[in-house]
Amino acid sequence: MGLMYRFLGFMFLGFLLFCKAEGAIRYYDFVVKESNFTRLCSTKSILTVNDSFPGPEIQVNKGDTVFVNVHNQGTYGITIHWHGVKMLRNPWSDGPEYVTQCPIPAGTNFTQEINFSTEEGTLWWHAHSDWSRATVHGAIIIYPANGTSYPYSKPYGEQTIVIASWYKADVMEVYEEAVASGAEFNTSDAFTINGQPGALFDCSTGTTFRLPVEQGETYLLRIINAILNEEMFFGIAQHNLTVVGTDGFYTKPINADYIMITPGQTMDVLVTANQTASYYYMAASPFSNSEAPFLNATTTAILQYIGNQSAPSSIPLPTLPGTNDTTAASNFTTKFRSLASNDHPISVPKNITKHILMSVSVNLIFCPNDSCSGTPDGDRLGASMNNLSFVLPTTDILELYTRNNFSQFTTDFPLEPPTFFNFTGDVNVTVYAEQGTKVIELEYGEVVELVYQGTNIGNAQNHPMHLHGFSFYSVGTGLGNFNNQTDPDNYNLIDPPEINTIQLPKNGWVALRFVADNPGVWFLHCHFERHTPWGMSMAIIVKNGGTTSTSMRARPAYMPPCPGS
Q1: Is 246 helix (H, G, I), strand (E, B) or coil?
Q2: 210-213: strand order across its sheet
């Protein structure tokens, strides 16, 4: 019996060591349902997770595994995506509708397995079907692995800051009306910080989010831009900010009065409460450099020093750049560098085996019989990459691909624009895009350089481009047309930022590099929510390697059924 207890003890010790080496396993239940919320003087029903807006936080340590059982108690299908998590070899749980799965039908549930690997810092999760992510989203907090620490002094406290959109109308009605007509989407009625519009909006003074702070202490703000269609400036009155991470990776410290954060991005920001004990507004306001409609409004929250002081008669606001201050936006976004330390090394790909040049445009889509209302001529607003406006299939691409079924998509997405022209100058090509469902197929281990090229077709503007399944290195950016002979000479191959969402500048270009070492089907799209249904998206398939560890995991026993299946 003593030997048996000793054997069981060794077994238990081995299990603990295995858990420490492989990371812990955690479980969450997400109940998706309609809940009533009162904002802007009126009450409405919105789709939520666990009756909260923003939704619940997922908290893990680096290397953990999480199982989330998504119970859809709403009235229509939905999917959930784990934004910035690589999901190594496991595209089955990545979440984009009709790319890696079909929507979870109302009244059913689906358990997704989220595999954390090299990510550390702040990421987020959100719905990835229609416009449900307007209210279905939340933070993912990835703490350092057990036995390790932050690459900076541990902050006294931390707070997640989620900036989001608020519509008085039903978001799905806004979405469906625009999709049916081919016209522009309506803008939101407010922005929110942690679910509250702030004192500058009607009926919102008493509910403004407040962050209590101790004088002299440093806090970590985990900032997420969950807004549907606006890039945002953010700052805190009379307080300096220090950016120390973005998109789940550490950066060299950036000292700034403000940040500029695009939809899909996350930033880890340190702020020290070193001013006179009082109340100070933190605020976020939009940046826009195009003719597209946007909400020109400011959402606020309060940084409140702990003590007996009363609120001042006028709480100071931060001085943020103007809505069209391109210089201020660029000055901030070009400062990012990877930390690139011994404890947090990087590996920038050097020997490129696959070059992709991808023009990104806002277009028109021809409508038969002038039946749409996107333009006076009866056409539909659209968008494209390499002049192909992506159309989602009716069965998800991952399911089709693993069955060797190419009936709804092809693998001949062009690796360069079909027509070369002065992309950022006077456009002399058609504004109309072709429609189709084409993907790029990569061999496992290919070393990829992808250059996004903005164009002056249609409504030129910035585009926040997001790639599922990978982080990548942003090695270069510039204005005008990319020159493949001279521009690479100015690449940063020493400490480029490692990210998952990149801002493509208006009438400019940005170059990124990654190794195709994650087999599966991975969505690539603009994170402006109006551009994805217009067709500014596509998918990349990375083939299996030659071993089990370089191949996709097996299909789960249950996947949400596709319509008609």
Answers
A1: strand
A2: 210-213, 299-305, 279-287, 231-236, 259-261
C-alpha 180/C-alpha 372 separation (Å) is 8
CA distance 326 to 291: 14
Distance in angstroms (rounded) separating the CA atoms of residues 419 and 406 = 26
Q: 541, 401 in Cβ contact below 8 A?
A: yes
Beta strands across the sheet bearing 537-542: 439-442, 537-542, 520-526, 463-467, 501-504
Supply the pLDDT for residue 564: 73
Q: What is the pTM of this model?
A: 0.95
Is there a contact between 515 and 540 (Cβ–Cβ < 8 Å)?
no
Tokens at residue 532, please?
Answer: 């994805």
Angle of CA points 401, 404, 409, to nearest 5°: 55
Q: How far apart are CA 110 and CA 78, in angstroms?
A: 10
Q: Are 449 and 513 in contact (CB under 8 A)?
A: yes
Average pLDDT score over the chain: 95
Whole-Å CA distances, 125 to 58, 226, 227: 9, 10, 13
Output phi, psi for 472, to 5 deg.
Answer: -140, 165
Inter-residue contact 137 to 126 (CB < 8 Å): yes
CB 360 within 8 A of CB 454: yes
**Do 110 and 558 meet the contact criterion of CB atoms below 8 Å apart?**
yes
Residues 6+ apart with CB under 8 A from 434: 384, 387, 388, 389
Task: Return the HEC string of 366-412.
Answer: CCHHHCCCCCCCCCEEEEEECCEEECCCCCCHHHHHHCCCCCCCECC
247 falls in which pLDDT band (50, 70, 90)? very high
β-strand partners of 32: 49, 72
Alpha-carbon separation of residue 378 from 317, 429, 436 (angstroms): 45, 20, 21
Q: Exposed, middle or buried by CB within 10 Å (0-12, 13-18, 19+), for 1? A: exposed
